[in-house]
Every structure is written in structure tokens, then in C-alpha cells.
Design a protein that fits this description.
By secondary structure, this protein is an alpha+beta fold. The protein has 2 domains: 9-216 and 330-411, 3-Layer(aba) Sandwich (Aminopeptidase), CATH 3.40.630.10; 217-328, Alpha-Beta Plaits. It has 12 helices and 16 strands. It has helices spanning 9-20, 37-52, 97-112, 139-145, 150-154, 164-174, 201-204, 243-257, 297-314, 335-347, 363-366, 393-411; strands spanning 56-59, 65-69, 79-84, 121-126, 190-196, 209-215, 217-226, 230-231, 266-268, 272-275, 281-282, 285-294, 320-328, 331-332, 352-357, 372-377. The strands form 3 sheets. Strands 1, 2, 3, 4, 5, 6, 14, 15 and 16 form a 9-stranded mixed sheet that branches. Helix 1 crosses helix 12 (393-411) and helix 2 runs parallel beside helix 6 (164-174). It starts with 8 loop residues before the first helix and ends with a helix. It binds glyoxylic acid and manganese (II) ion (2 copies). One manganese (II) ion is lined by residues 88, 95, 130, 385.
Length: 413
Amino acid sequence: MSGADAVKEDRLWQRHADMAKLGGTPRGGVNRQALSAEDAAARNQLAAWAKARDFDVFTDAIGNLFIQKSGTDPALAPVLSGSHMDSQPTGGRFDGMYGVLAAFEALEALDDAGVKTKRPVMAVAWTNEEGSRFQPGAMGSAVFAGACRLDDMLGQKDWKGIVLKDALAETLKAAPAPIRDGAPGFPVDSYIEAHIEQGPRLETAATTIGVVTAIQGSRRYIVEIDGEEAHAGTTPRAARKDAYAAATRIAAAMYEATADADDTLRFTIGRVDVSPGSPNTVPGKAVFTIDMRHPDNAVLAAHEAKLEAIVAAKAPPCPARIERVTNVPPTDFDPTVIGLVRDKAESLGLSHMDMPSGAGHDAMHIARLCPTGMIFVPCERGISHNEIENATPADLAAGTRVLVEVLEALANR
Ligand code: GLV
Ligand code: MN
Ligand code: MN
């Protein structure tokens, strides 16, 4: 039996159902934000499944969780596969979790089929990919790849002021695993991440496998505006320093400035905090996030300049600051890994198409370390970052079969 033949669709589907109970929401999704009690529960679940197989489990100083199936040559660097288990506040059960469970299923399938590889094969669950609670997203993979400093990340605060270092310590206390000493990061031969597409192209084309060629660039900002609290009933317009009014002027100008004719630039204001949050007090502070993405870094740079000009022009009389929290350039994946995904999909008789990724993934950081690629499978109506996100057991298993074949090929190079 080959490793791909040993992939068990039912087992993979059941594991998604089991994980969906951890932080489960009424509409069938999950709220399992990074370094929460629910995240710890998912870590414990994954580690328990790994230990039942006698796979090695360990974590690193940013909480990335690794599971290793040994190779025949212990001197060789491992082939790595995985994604993330944290979710959006109203997330789906497949975003991230699929890549982790597909990698784990791959380890089990190789084990069940008695397949030995030269290199170790490792599954990983990266810490805080979503970046909904702590900024920036894709944090664990960024630290692993050296794109962010560990100490800077440990000092990050969530929206309630909780320091990441404390949340991480709580999480690792609740979900203990042996910690590999030193700064995160070790030699990796290659990396491959499975993920739902999070867009409609595969479903529309009735195609099972997305051969991912690239990820578009992304930048994220926090804009902070200071106003002056005042009485809503008595303060004339000319005397107001209304922080929210300034935020809406900036937002309106940015929506207009980013409305490109070919609908390629992605611009989102996903969070607005207004304080003190009282109906009859003029807001003294407004803080909002901007998420901007495009395949061309020069376009992102040009729109960053526009943002600076718009804030300078529209914020007065309120002082405003822009903090750039993420700047990830576009990523091109490795031709060898791309070719392997395409060839393995083909030889398994699965329909496939090449495509770039609109969403960000941990793979964008790991691609700076080693040959990297991704496998997409369809999700219903392309909906993601939504509790109703859905995918079929057959598609999830098909993507995992391709993953097993690619891992085996990479691990025997
Ligand atoms: C990841 O969830 C992203 O925002 O692309
Ligand atoms: Mn994801
Ligand atoms: Mn996501």
C-alpha cells in the first residue's frame, strides 16, 4: 500500500469535527483565537493523537508545536508541513486546521503504510497565524524564519492589553510540551502547506487541487487618532475634536483611493475602536486597522504613501499616527515544489489548476528559508473567515493524498 492509499477520509473528517468542538460557535464555526484556552485545548488534542502514535512532540519559544516522524538518516534536515490552529473570532473549522490535520494525517498514513523516508517528516502548528488578537499575523512562522524578533513578539499586547509573553506562558502551562531551547528556527529541507482556497476559483472551475504558485503581498496598519472628549449635547461643531469623525474622513478617502479599475487591490478596515464608547460623549479616541494586499509591492508602496497624505490632510484638527504592523512582500513559491504538486495531482488522477493565493499563509515566511509550496482544495462558495466555512470530506482527503506523495518525494531526495 502506498502512503496516499493509506489516507483515511473518515479519520481526517472526524478529526476536524473533534477540533471544531474546541471553541465551537453556535453557527458551526470556531472562536479559537491565538493563545486562548481554546487554542491550548487544540494543542493538547493534537499532542494526544501524536503521542498515541509514538511520534515526538515538542514546542519552541514562540509556541510553535512540532510533531516528528523519524527518517532513516537522522543527520538529514526534515521536510515540514502544517498550518495553524488559531482562528478568527468568528472563524470556520477548516482555515488553518485543515493544513495541520492534513499534515498529521500524512504522518499517520505513512506510518500505516509502513513507508520509511530518508528525511524526518514533521507536522507543525504555527502560533498566531490569524493576527486577529495579537499583531502581526503569521507570527510563529515569522519568528521561526527570522522575519520578526522573538523579544519584540513576546512584548506585543492584545486589544485588552494582555501581553503575549503572559498569554503564551498560560497556554504552555495548560498545554505542556517539551520546549526546544534557544531562539526558534532549525534547518528545514522543504515546506509544503495544505489549505482550503478561501476563494471561489476552484469550485467555479470544478477543480479539486489548486497548485499554488505565489502569495500576494500584504501590509497591515493601525491608525490611531486623538480627539477631545466633550458633551454631545452642548459642544458646537467648530469646538469639537471628534476622533471618530476624523476616522470616517480618512476611511472615505482611502476607499476612494484604493478603488482600482481592475479590482486587484484589496483594502479592508476590519476593526474600529472608539472610546470612551458612550452615546453622548464626543469620541476622544479612535483606533482602526487597515489590511491592504496586492501582487505588486510597488502598488502597495504607492498606496502607503497615499495613506500618509490622506491622514495628514483629513485628520486635523485631531493628531493622528499610523503604525505599520506588517509588511510582507509578494512570495513566489519554489518551481520544484510547484512541479511536484502538479505532477502528483496529475498521477493521482485529480483535476488541478495553477493559481496564486489571495490570502496570507505561514508558507510566505518559510519560503524565505527553504523550497516551499502550497496545495489548495475547494471550499463552499469560496467563503472563509466566516463560521459557515465548509469543505467536503472527499476534497480534504484528495488534497491530503497529494500532500503525502509530495512529502514522500521531498523526504527521499
Ligand atoms: C490570513 O488569514 C490572512 O489574513 O490572509
Ligand atoms: Mn489560514
Ligand atoms: Mn485565516
